[in-house]
Design a protein that fits this description.
Length: 317
């Protein structure tokens, strides 16, 4: 664990006026890549310079690394900006970038988030609850599963968009309300990577039919891979019958409005699409947001787009 103590000037929007104040922030990280001159140290995260970066250390590519932001007093973080990867000229491809992660509050509240694999600031909406610290945990990185050159994860800069808390009795002072322990942030939308509507509809239907164990699930897949997918799904359904959960899952209600869709590439009748965000499942006494971040390969058949392959299928079934 490494610590960098920094003093920064932030612009805060108060309840009545806009003013500047000094916010004392302690930055702790799980590790950093040791280099001559400490080029990748954690203080780079809040130095207002995207030409510098924190780079994670250790033996892994970055999953499980964390960044702690500790404040001198409780503050409300409404939004958190992340400059993903090393954004100095020519260095973006040298390091891995955050694909998905969580913001964890001291009371256990978690805000899941997903980032795009691109330069510039990406802003995460936060619940704005008062806290003296935040932990950013990296769950997945770009590129996924690659073991060659781009070894370590990097972040160039973090920005905090905060609101000063009103004093008790002041106008606007609110009574603290308990927050759910899991709050998914909406996935970012990139207007340059829009997925065709018919593919979005197909993939949304996939989550509905898979979760509710629909009889016509196999019709979502291309003809030449349908039998393989159908076999795996039948095995999965048989497991649920043995567990006594088959009939319950058949009544599940699935809300896919929290999913984001990003076109990775399209060539003729083939497309690769990233699906990320969360979908909500309500069944029996369960009402839960399930996080998702998967890649899909699709082909255009005579009767429309169909799924050819998806991430983690073997583990799912």
């Amino acid at each position: 664990m490494h610590i960098a103590r920094l003093l920064f000037l932030f612009i805060a929007i108060t309840l009545s006026a806009t003013s500047a104040f000094a916010l004392d922030v302690t930055v702790k990280v799980s590790s950093f890549k040791v280099d001559f001159g400490f080029e990748f140290a954690p203080e780079n995260l809040l130095d207002n310079d995207t030409d510098t970066a924190w780079v994670g250390g250790g033996v892994g590519p970055g999953s499980g690394q964390w960044i702690d932001l500790i404040f001198g007093f409780p503050v409300r973080v409404d939004r958190l900006g992340i400059f993903n990867g090393h954004q100095a000229d020519g260095r973006f491809e040298e390091f891995r970038r955050i694909r998905s992660g969580r913001i964890i509050y001291p009371d256990g509240t978690e805000v899941a988030f997903w980032l795009r694999d691109e330069a510039g600031e990406q802003v995460i909406d936060c619940p704005g609850k008062p806290a003296k610290s935040l932990r950013i945990v990296i769950d997945e990185v770009f590129p996924k599963g690659e073991l060659t050159a781009k070894v370590k994860v990097a972040v160039s800069e973090i920005k905090l968009y905060i609101t000063l808390m009103p004093q008790p009795g002041e106008i606007g002072a609110e009574k603290a309300q308990p927050a759910p322990t899991h709050i998914p942030a909406m996935p970012p939308v990139d207007p340059d990577k829009v997925v065709p509507d018919d593919i979005v509809s197909l993939l949304k239907l996939f989550y509905v039919k898979q979760t509710s164990l629909a009889d016509d699930y196999e019709t979502l897949f291309a003809e030449d891979v349908r039998d393989r997918h159908d076999f795996r799904f039948e095995v999965f359904k048989e497991v649920q019958r043995q567990r006594g959960t088959y009939r319950i899952l058949r009544t599940a209600l699935i809300d896919t409005s929290g999913l984001g869709f990003e076109l990775v590439q399209m060539a003729g009748d083939w497309a690769e699409v990233r699906v990320f965000g969360s979908y909500r499942v309500k069944v029996a006494d369960l009402d839960e947001n399930l996080e998702e971040d998967s890649m899909y390969i699709l082909s255009r058949e005579s009767d429309g787009w169909k799924i050819v392959e998806l991430d983690g299928q073997e583990e799912s079934f």
